[in-house]
From TrEMBL:
Name this protein carries in UniProt: EF-hand domain-containing protein
Primary localization class, coarse: cytoplasm
Keyword Cytoplasm (UniProt): yes
Matches recorded under SMART domains: EFh
Pfam families, A to Z: EF-hand_5, EF-hand_8
PROSITE patterns per record: EF_HAND_1, EF_HAND_2
Species in which this protein is naturally found: Megalops atlanticus (Tarpon)
Length: 209
């Protein structure tokens, strides 16, 4: 049984449009510093920006994330992300279960978002802000997910409006597909495409994102 990867958005991480980049390029670290800044986020150019968005509690909630993504112009000419999509984004990467987004989670989100945006723009060539159902199917397949045509149809129907898929819904779909696949794969120790779920575990996996 082939397992999905998340290919298609490797490579260097471009900064989102309008995103402030204090401290110059990401690669400019002092000599002798460990790759990845050795666990000192203060040395990371995105740290100051994260702190400003996160506010007093030092973490980013759904409202803060929505404001940040709107203000930094990430959506560009596309409609801003709904609060619900922002909630899903936070839940997807909430590894420490705080219900909010810490610094490393925030950085992971931007890496993923950049990939999905590039993917979406590749299909939305006339910049209408939407992609066609068959393009959505191609996008999901190109990300490496191996699902049946039936599953694909169901997913696309769920995330369409008037027969087309908007950027916000596209991202919401990608976020959910990735999170559920991650959750499943983590339990599929033999990587065989089959898992036995306890009811409570299943509910946690699906209802918390
Ligand atoms: Ca906050
Ligand atoms: Ca968190």
């Amino acid at each position: 049984m082939a397992y999905p990867g998340y290919g298609g958005y490797g490579g260097p991480m471009p900064m989102p449009g309008g995103m402030p980049m204090p401290g110059g390029p990401m690669g400019a670290q002092p000599p002798g510093a460990f790759p990845g800044y050795g666990g000192f986020p203060e040395n990371d150019p995105m740290w100051g920006y994260f702190r400003a968005v996160a506010g007093q509690d030092g973490e980013i909630d759904a409202e803060e994330l929505q404001r940040c993504l709107t203000q930094c112009g990430f959506s560009g000419s596309y409609a801003p992300f709904s609060l619900e999509t922002c909630r899903v984004m936070i839940a997807m990467l909430d590894r420490d279960f705080t219900g909010k987004m810490g610094f490393s989670e925030f950085k992971d989100l931007f890496t993923a978002l950049n990939g999905w945006k590039q993917n979406f723009m590749m299909f939305d060539q006339d910049r209408s802000g939407t992609v066609e159902p068959h393009e959505m199917a191609q996008a999901i397949t190109s990300m490496g997910y191996r699902v049946s045509p039936q599953a694909l149809n169901g997913i696309i129907k769920r995330y369409s409006k008037g027969g087309r898929i908007f950027f916000d819904d596209y991202v919401a779909c990608c976020v959910k597909l990735r999170t559920l696949t991650d959750n499943f794969r983590r339990r599929d120790v033999m990587q065989q495409g089959t898992v036995n779920f306890q009811y409570d575990d299943f509910i946690q996996c699906t209802m918390t994102i």
